[in-house]
Amino acid sequence: MLTGVGTSALCGLLPPTLAAAGSAGDGLGARAAAKGLKFGASFSTEELNKPYADRYAAIYAEDCRVLTSELEFKMYTLRPTADVLDFAPADKLLAVAEKDQQTVRGHTLVWNDALPDWVHRLGPGEVEHLLEAHIETVMERYRGRVTSWDVVNEPIGPWDKLPGNLRKGPYYSTFGESYIAKSFVIARKADPKAELVLNEAQTESDDDNGATFRSSLLGLLKRLKDSGAPIDTVGLQSHIDTARPYDFARFADFVREIVALGYGVAITELDVNDRALDSTPNLRDAAVAKIYKNFLAAVLPIREIKTLTLWQLADHTSWLWYDAVAKGNPGGRLPRPLLYDASFKKKSAWYAVAEALDAMPAR
Ligand code: XIL
């Protein structure tokens, strides 16, 4: 039933057969799997400490065939100090996924962000040792259990004004651009069967920023191809922001350019920041649903996209929600970027995604 959702806003969006959906077999993961697409979302074990933990776990069990670690594999979680390796949160995530027969995407091994302070104080030789030891130790521990890794996250950062528009940080300072290829070589050796992903942000918008990210990423991917770096898949985060302009057909052309270079593509962190939508919650939900619908209609026909993951499933567990709360909710309203509302009710966006999955061609 559509209680709590503005049904009038759903005209033309919601096929009658979907209105009664709700059992596990109708979940998004099952719908996607029927077409050969793996569907899931980021999962945070910190949410399991909340009073709503059971309902949180239940929507993932219903909708997800793959979980991406939101925090558990970030360097600041795994290595809070130089001599500690804390696998407890990651082990907890694996236990949830294995109970519900979901695969896991490990996010992320090498990122010039989410680093504990002590890493910034290392000398070049120590950074080299850390890069190798970290990838090997973490991947070998979860070999065969974490089947896809974001080996390198967000290598592009035009604001740092480095050659190739690469992002600065300890790895770049130590190796230059070659830290990227090197990371993938180490990763392939640590688990030859895992899918190795280079994940990037901000390529989606149809503005100067998006254009810079797209051309910089394409340039990097060409150089990596030439160098023989063992990269299987390019992850495009797809944090859609209503404050920016979009042309999803042009974005799909960009995805096809990546495919033409010989890479697979995954949509890895989809959500819709509704900050520029100025209306009631029901109307905002309808507009967000339409953005999901249009985005997926443009990209899901590309059969090389084999994985689609959102960044969380419910509004109140989104990084955008936490960010708004941390800032004292300056807009006077909380974000509604995802498929379930803060009471775990399906929103119109859930139905838009279900419809897009049902309509897409099989892989
Ligand atoms: C975000 C998490 O959602 C937050 O909880 C955390 O505080 C910061 O990181 N791109 C990424 C993710 O690759 O790792 C980010 O996740 C969101 C943007």
Characterise this structure.
It is a single chain. The protein has 363 residues and is an alpha/beta fold. Helices cover 41% and strands 15% of the residues. The chain is built from 14 helices and 9 strands. It has helices at 16-19, 28-33, 53-63, 75-78, 88-99, 117-120, 124-141, 170-175, 178-190, 208-227, 248-260, 281-299, 319-326, 348-359, and strands at residues 38-43, 66-69, 103-111, 146-153, 195-200, 233-236, 239-241, 264-273, 305-310. An 8-stranded parallel β-barrel has the order 1-2-3-4-5-6-8-9, surrounded by 5 helices. α7 runs parallel beside α9. The two termini are 31 Å apart. The structure holds (3S,4R)-3-hydroxy-2-oxopiperidin-4-yl beta-D-xylopyranoside. The site of (3S,4R)-3-hydroxy-2-oxopiperidin-4-yl beta-D-xylopyranoside has 7 residues, from loops. (3S,4R)-3-hydroxy-2-oxopiperidin-4-yl beta-D-xylopyranoside is lined by residues 70-71, 153, 201, 237, 269, 319.
Keywords:
363 residues; alpha/beta; 8-stranded parallel beta barrel; 14 helices; 15% strand; disordered N terminus; binds (3S,4R)-3-hydroxy-2-oxopiperidin-4-yl beta-D-xylopyranoside
